[in-house]
């Protein structure tokens, strides 16, 4: 990233305060950027090409400094009802952060694109897709333009550089109105058009050991500067919205809370027997079993705590229940595999690896209980998808999970192994409780729908594209407004990290966190 420009530019914040654009100590310029990296003990030599990319980016983005201080587009004062007969919008959606579809962000991108397909009859969409990911978007061919991106840009540093240098030029050539980057990790600094970014969570501010030092530095320092350049930010939960306002200092009025959805055509109740035949029988597996769907990431996803609790549960009860862990390898996967191998009940713990999206519904239908003991989530898709399939859920309430699952899940305390053990025991022995969770989960899942998520996202695109700003003009603060989201709520950014329900008659009521 161009840390020189990020720390030197004085106009990227709405309050125009110089102190927000400096690194600690009041320094500016390249030396300040490097000093900040050193304070975070970032070793750029560990990332091939990082230093060259940094130098190239510094030179490339210098041209954007003069008269280029605020976000590209300012919306008209206040929000207004969308004019469905308004002009079509040209939207470019970057997909390179989807990690081959094997992550929550990947599922967000794929699900959002599917839900946006009907809108392609009116608006012009360009999907920017890494070459090896092209088959994942075959369903959109014919409805949306697909722009292949060379695989040489897949590595993180090269991908960042591509977003900051190549993408802006492409957007200008194509006459793009809005660029949507669905992750804070690739937000743009140049502004060839209106910029929209989806932020799923700000885990680096909550879990200091989640990533290596370079990624933590990027997430905590660089991304905060980039966030101020965005015209609109979509937060997938109120918890994430509060974090964006608090840690990235983005005004609440520029943040739209649009929860993730559920594809109810795919995730729906079905025959448990058929599901067992479809996904368990070919692997020689049988129930009853707990299922945890999360990439093998240690310590963030808390596989270690779950395995410990499961060992205690088995020792205390002698129960035949098993534990199946579905998810591809990620940071710390080796530690998780070691814990499984060393478990006295290793034969009852099965690592399923990455489960294709097409098989997930049957795994949820086959499972007796989904467990989700994660330390932190910005939303938490698996619990809602499992609920939609009629699977009882035990879930942590950390991060945004409390607002996602509501009262429809059994509560897990991720740092209390004894409590997790007790909940596993209750779920395994109390069929009536599982039935109550199943009914509550089905009702909760109906509050989420990708079609509603897509409609709300389209309104964000239209609002960003309709903005108008003279060259060099500072962005006008947007007045707080409302946005219909999938749970039927109207969310209003009130400032100070608070959000409120709109009652529909101009009266707002404070929302509980």
Annotation keywords:
disordered C terminus, Rossmann fold, 7-stranded parallel beta sheet, 17 strands, 513 residues
The CATH architecture classification of the largest domain is 3-Layer(aba) Sandwich
Total helical elements? 16
Number of folding domains?
Answer: 2
Q: What is the CATH superfamily of the largest domain?
A: Glycogen Phosphorylase B
Largest sheet: 7 strands, parallel
Radius of gyration: 23 Å
Could you list the spans in which at least 5 consecutive residues all have pLDDT below 50? 1-33, 56-83, 468-513
State the strand order across the main sheet: 3-2-1-4-5-6-7
Description:
By secondary structure, the protein is α/β, with parallel strands linked by helices. It folds into two domains: 3-77 and 86-257, Rossmann fold; 272-445, Rossmann fold (3-Layer(aba) Sandwich). Helices cover 36% and strands 15% of the residues. It contains 16 helices and 17 strands. It has helices at 3-8, 30-39, 50-61, 104-116, 156-174, 213-227, 238-247, 272-280, 303-317, 333-342, 360-366, 381-388, 401-405, 417-429, 431-445, 450-465; strands spanning 90-94, 124-130, 145-149, 178-181, 194-199, 232-235, 255-257, 289-293, 322-326, 349-353, 369-372, 393-396, 410-412, 482-484, 490-495, 498-502, 508-510. The strands form three sheets. Strands 3-2-1-4-5-6-7 form a seven-stranded parallel beta sheet, sandwiched between helices. Strands 10-9-8-11-12-13 form a six-stranded parallel beta sheet, sandwiched between helices. Strands 14-15-16-17 form a four-stranded antiparallel beta sheet. Strand 1 (90-94), helix 4 and strand 2 form a beta-alpha-beta unit. Helix 4 (104-116) packs across helix 16 and helix 9 (303-317) crosses helix 14. The radius of gyration is 23 Å and the shape is globular.
